[in-house]
Each structure stands twice: as C-alpha cells, then as structure tokens.
C-alpha cells in the first residue's frame, strides 16, 4: 500500500460529489459534469474554478482507476483520524499492536514488529515514508530518502474519426487546456537564471529526525515540504510550482485499424508534475463514425453489392469499392441472391501484418420501371421459365 499525504487530507468522493460506494459510471458522469463547469476555458481568470478543476481532475484520476481507488479506500480506512491502538498492558506496544488495514508480523516475545508493519507503508506526496519513517524510527531504523514531487495526473480526452481514417490510420491535432510545464522556467519552478538548491535543513533527504526520550522519530521536512530542495527566487509565472494552465496543441498518430471505443495512451502528455516531476499520461478515446458503404467485423469489411437478376443468372465481373480503390469481383453463373463472396486480403490491415478480407454480399436490385419492349421480353422469359419446370416455391412452406 502506498498512502499519499493528499489521500489523507482530501476526500476525493466529496470533491466529485459522489458517495464512497459510487459506481464507476457514476464517478465518470460526475467528473464530466464538473469538468465542463470548471474548465478554465469556461471560467477565464477565475482562480478558484481553476483550483477546483485541478482537484476534480486529481480525484477522477484516482477513483477512475480500480487499483488506485482500492488503495485510496484502504489508506483512508487505515489512517483516517489516527485510529491506532495497542493491545498490551495499559494500551502500550508491549503486548501487541493493531492498525486498521495493517499486517501484523509476529515479533520477539510474542508481540508484533511495528517496524515491519509500517516499514513498507509507502510514500506521501512530496515526502516518502511519513508513516514508515515515523514508526521505523521507533526502532532506530534509518529514515528513507524523500520522494521528489509526484508525477502529474493522467488526463482523458476524445476524438471522432471517419470510418476510413480509423481503418487506414491518420494523424489528428488535439487542443488541450490543462496544467502543463511552465514555459518560462521549463518546469523547475525557479526564476530563469537560477536553480533550486538542496535544502540545508534536511540535506536533501526531505525528512528530519528528532529524538524523544528513548525513541527516534522521522518526519517530513517543513522547510522544503518534503521535497529535498528549496527555491529562493520562484518563477513569477508559475509561483514556483513549475506548472501553469495553458492551451496546447498536440499531434496524435492514430494507428491503423483502431476500433470504436478504443483508448490510445500517450506517455508523458498528461498533466505536468510539480517542479519538474514527470508528467502523467494522456488517454485518447476514439469514436468511429459509421460508413455509408462498409461495416466492420473484426478485421473483415462487409459490403452489400446491388446486382441485376441477369448478372446473377448469367454471371459477371463487377467493380467493388475497397478502402483503397476498387477491386474486380467475379460473380459465378447461377449465384443465389444473398450469397456472400470473399475477397481475401482487402479488409482492414492487421498490426501484426496482413489484412482481413472483404465480404461482398450480392443483393438483387429490382427496376422501378421498364419500357414495353423490356416487359415483353420479361414475359417471354417467364413463359420459358415455367416451360422448363422451374417452380421457385416448390417445397417452400411444407411442414
């Protein structure tokens, strides 16, 4: 488990206005509603809305990820309000230790090794081991090195493609308004011409140690907020955070054969991390518009081909559209209406190589009007058909 300080200080469910047992769909719906209302484009110059937008985005990035949500719930349950109690005499540590959600390991003398219980507790934002270092220090364990500012949150957006662009692949431009690395200080948070310096209080560790009686404690450094570095002259454009909200345009390469609803991950294109920390990822959900000619089944393409009755009876070679040009398809004589002909390798390209097939279903097109000569010929044909003994409904409907 990797509890983060924000997870203990902020109620992400409250930020999104949902219950703690809300479904994934309810969380997504609440986030989309709030994101539209609080988006910087809809609230220009409103710092409070911008801050709420960041909080809502962070809450969604945790609660929309099943693994992160589980970890968040366990962290809040285990550490909220500091609910720890001892089982030993007088409520101390001698006889045992109980912590909500923790794992107790047998120790010497039949008690529990509190150092093992919290030694792997994980990180907090801006300072590693706020709990692990605290309880590790009880047993003179060395404090961990502080984690630098955490990576930025992941972002989500969507784009709509034509059927053919999705099948063939394309490049689209997306405009995003989100926290991005400050262009003035290049994400460092320091005024141009200066650099962050190592915190002299904790010597860059991000944590400080102190003794209280027989015990040693480690806690996040208050001078650098657990980051291990200090900025003497903050960048005026980002106030030392290394991040500003701005609109940027990125080009996204859509791979060949992308399907409706598929998500594309762009590493490092999400929300910028504070003070030079890595950016999160961007996930682009693709919506594919229907096509007037083609439908898709896996990597195969399906098309209905209008043909005349004469082409089915006598046979013919007809031109059929594909994603790239046309192909000649041979209709054998006496082909039944509704038969599907397969043209191999003319479907959607596969990422591993090769392509699906083109499935051509023939459908008889009936003329809306014939001239007298054509009608007379058709009657002659009908007479010849009956004379030959052909009965199209022979056996049909028999029980």
Describe the structure.
This protein is α+β, with helices and mostly antiparallel strands and 399 residues long. Among the domains are: 145-196 and 231-289, HSP40/DNAj peptide-binding domain (Sandwich), CATH 2.60.260.20; 295-387, HSP40/DNAj peptide-binding domain (Sandwich), CATH 2.60.260.20. 24% of the residues lie in helices and 26% in strands. It is built from ten helices and 19 strands. The protein has a four-stranded mixed β-sheet. Helix 3 packs antiparallel against helix 4. The longest helix has 17 residues, at 47-63. The protein is elongated and about 115 Å long. 29% of the residues are buried. Residues 169-247 form the CR-type domain. One of its GO terms (molecular function) is heat shock protein binding. Belongs to the DnaJ family. A zinc finger (CR-type) spans 169-247. Zn(2+) 2 binds at residues 199, 202, 221, 224.
